């Protein structure tokens, strides 16, 4: 299994600003994903981070609002832009190996004021 | 749209009781996973089931994949307070992404 770290673990941001979340994996992985989760609820997939190409976004999520970078096979960033209170949530990155088993980072709790 | 419905949504039981959580869909999945998540942490993978009818046991937890690979169940025997958490099933339809269930919040009282 992979060990995943995320930075920051939490942040409080003002509306209209942006937050960039970093995801670091201790090994090279093919698939990386970004999810959003309201506390105590299920996960919603934002996008798949593709190494060397544009991320694949799910319905309801757009690149202008959630730009993603993935410069190599161990690192990715998710930026949440032009923040509004509705963006307050937990953001999680995950990776999947060749057996398609997913491993998650600890999450970033974002509060927008 | 592929959906995974979990039931019950909430469950509060006494230590020592048994419980079953269900994960149902009208879609077929290549594999299905169960996760447990505690507050402030990411989901932790418990098990992956692949074959229709497959049963896997992890100590007091028993996981079953439906024969048609559309549903799954998680049974906990003699629940303990340490079992408290959010339980999520996730189906892999064979494409690049997972479909997560609606979640079951379990609280085991000492």
General description of the model:
- The complex is a heterodimer of chains A (113) and B (110).
- Chain A is built from no helices and 11 strands.
- Chain A is an all-beta fold.
- In chain A, strands 2, 4, 5, 6, 9, 10 and 11 form a 7-stranded mixed sheet that branches. In chain A, strands 1-3-8-7 form a 4-stranded antiparallel sheet, with no helix packed on it.
- In chain A, a hairpin with a 5-residue loop joins strand 9 (89-96) and strand 10.
- Chain A is globular.
- The mean pLDDT of chain A is 93.
- Chain B has a single domain, classed as Immunoglobulin-like (Sandwich).
- Chain B is built from no helices and 11 strands.
- Chain B has strands at 5-7, 10-14, 19-24, 31-37, 44-49, 55-58, 61-65, 71-76, 85-92, 99-100, 104-109.
- In chain B, strands 2, 4, 5, 9, 10 and 11 form a 6-stranded mixed sheet that branches.
CATH architecture of chain A: Sandwich
Radius of gyration of chain B: 13 Å
Largest interface: A-B, 26 and 24 residues
CATH architectural designation of chain B = Sandwich
Q: If you compute it from the alpha carbons, what radius of gyration of chain A comes out, rounded to the nearest whole angstrom?
A: 13 Å
What is the fourth-level CATH superfamily of chain A? Answer: Immunoglobulins
- Taken in chain order, the helices and strands of chain A follow as EEEEEEEEEEE
């Amino acid at each position: 299994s992979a060990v995943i770290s995320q930075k920051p673990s939490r942040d409080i941001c003002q509306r209209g600003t942006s937050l960039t979340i970093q995801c670091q994996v201790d090994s090279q992985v093919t698939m990386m994903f970004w999810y959003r989760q309201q506390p105590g609820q299920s996960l919603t997939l934002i996008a798949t981070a593709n190494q060397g190409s544009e991320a694949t976004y799910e319905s309801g999520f757009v690149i202008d609002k959630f730009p993603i970078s993935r410069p190599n096979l161990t690192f990715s960033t998710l930026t949440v832009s032009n923040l509004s209170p509705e963006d307050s949530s937990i953001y999680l990155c995950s990776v999947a190996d060749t057996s398609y088993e997913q491993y998650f980072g600890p999450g970033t709790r974002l509060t927008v004021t | 749209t592929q959906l995974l419905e979990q039931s019950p949504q909430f469950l509060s039981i006494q230590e020592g009781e048994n419980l079953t959580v269900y994960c149902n869909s009208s879609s077929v999945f290549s594999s299905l996973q169960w996760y447990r998540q505690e507050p402030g942490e990411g989901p932790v993978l418990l098990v992956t089931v692949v074959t229709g009818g497959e049963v896997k046991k992890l100590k007091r937890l028993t996981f079953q994949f439906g024969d048609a690979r559309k549903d799954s169940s998680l049974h906990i025997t003699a629940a303990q307070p340490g079992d408290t958490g959010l339980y999520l099933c996730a189906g892999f339809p064979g494409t690049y992404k997972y479909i997560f269930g609606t979640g079951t919040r379990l609280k085991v009282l000492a």
